[in-house]
Amino acid sequence: MPAQAFRHFINGEWVSSARTFENRNPADNSVIGLVHEAGQAEVDAAVAAARAALKGPWGTMTVAQRTALLHKVAEGIERRHAEFVAAEVADTGKPAHLAGHLDIPRGAANFKVFADLIRNVPTESFVMDTPDGGKAVNYAVRSPRGVIGVVCPWNLPLLLMTWKVGPALACGNTVVVKPSEETPATATLLGEVMTEAGVPPGVYNVVHGFGADSAGAFLTSHPDVDGVTFTGETGTGEVIMKAAAKGIRPVSLELGGKNAGIVFADADLEKAVKGLGRAVFENSGQVCLGTERIYVQRPLFERFVEAFKAHAASIVVGDPNAHGTTMGPLISLSHREKVLSYARQAVDDGATVVCGGGIPQVPAHLAEGAWFEPTIWTGLPETSAVIREEIFGPCCHIAPFDTEEEAVALANDTPYGLAASVWTRDLQVAHRLGSALDVGICWINAWFLRDLRTAFGGAKQSGIGREGGVHSLEFYTELRNVCVRL
């Protein structure tokens, strides 16, 4: 694959398209390369290749053979760690240390975890009495669902793509991946790793493009795709769900959030500030599990705001490849304009700007990048769009509360239900909120601690289905009951 040209990876080959678009580095808005845009023909070819691979060597491999290949894929990512980091940093603008310690290692781990899981996952069996006094045994058999369409976000490109591709392939499916148009690099690079590892052609395919009237729409509506998995905005999830409804094809959706952090007066202030500092500002606030609303019990409120302001001031915004940088740019200039519009809305709605809210000063060579300051607001009404809508930037609103019941009501007053965190020394309070909050995951005195064996997904408008451990098998396999009369 020529450098700086992002082509489709279909049936083990690099495929060009007539139409291309630019891939830009968000740190300085420079052009990284040209991305080939898939039309209906390229998507048809990718789906056909995936279908053929199901009937070829991939479909006849034993679990041991298949999972051995996936371990080789993981080893390939680890061996080319520096290349993956460089590609992810150029595409996203995230600090190199973050990509190197989180995104890329998790990309490899996703293959290992699910390869090991599928070797040992049990299925149920039951012995029953028959009406005539005999016996029968029922047992379950898991089969691959088939061709899976994987539509990926731009915030954690390799991590979240492999979070889907890993279990899909471990279960014996084949995939057609549509990376975000903002971040084509690591999905493309993974095609090279798949070939090096000996994964048969057609098992892993990549088509580049946009959503509507492009690769995304062609893939999610394709009649020969057996299931679609997507991480991204709730609005896009609704579109994908409608497309998949034709043919009654299942979907797995991890969607938006407006996550709350709740800090009680007895909380360890230093730990709460540090943990929520990550939850608000890590990856420039572009994390689906990130926190944009913080509620602090009134006796601690003023101290928390001052401490959180100091934490924001300690963040080093700058060159993603520079040592010491702790926050990079937003993903694009258009996304920065969206975040800036919420900053203006906050002021219009009467917010107190504790810090930030604008474009920071950066070195001249980065001046054209999509930069935004770490931002904290207080004083907004709960009806403000800044409180109600997902912003996806390094910003949050902090508000006081008095009682446990009030905190729960405030946190749950959202159409979303992805995640929450609770900060308290009182384990009874912690357990009560763990049950009362309408979310898919609730952390107590922590944020972003993830055991990949546990269920992950959102409540309400934050998604459908669960991923992680055996829960991923519910989407990526078909469960068949076999009843044998004895």
Secondary structure elements and pairings:
Blueprint: E1 5-6, E2 8-10, E3 13-15, E4 20-24, E5 31-36, H1 40-55, H2 57-60, H3 63-79, H4 81-92, H5 96-120, E6 125-129, E7 135-144, E8 147-151, H6 157-170, E9 174-178, H7 185-197, E10 204-206, H8 215-220, E11 227-231, H9 234-245, E12 251-254, E13 259-263, H10 269-281, E14 291-297, H11 298-313, H12 333-348, E15 352-355, E16 375-378, H13 385-388, E17 395-401, H14 404-412, E18 416-417, E19 419-423, H15 427-436, E20 441-444, E21 459-460, E22 463-464, H16 473-476, E23 477-485
Parallel strand pairs: 1-5, 8-9, 8-11, 9-10, 11-12, 13-14, 13-19, 14-17, 16-17, 19-20
Antiparallel strand pairs: 2-3, 4-5, 6-7, 7-23, 12-22, 15-16, 18-21
Helix pairs in contact: 3-5, 3-7, 4-5, 5-6, 10-11
Any overview of this molecule?
This protein is an alpha/beta fold and 486 residues long. It folds into two domains: 5-255 and 462-485, Aldehyde Dehydrogenase, Chain A, domain 1; 259-451, Aldehyde Dehydrogenase, Chain A, domain 2. Helices cover 39% and strands 22% of the residues. The protein is built from 16 helices and 23 strands. The chain has helices at residues 40-55, 57-60, 63-79, 81-92, 96-120, 157-170, 185-197, 215-220, 234-245, 269-281, 298-313, 333-348, 385-388, 404-412, 427-436, 473-476, and strands at residues 5-6, 8-10, 13-15, 20-24, 31-36, 125-129, 135-144, 147-151, 174-178, 204-206, 227-231, 251-254, 259-263, 291-297, 352-355, 375-378, 395-401, 416-417, 419-423, 441-444, 459-460, 463-464, 477-485. The termini are far apart.
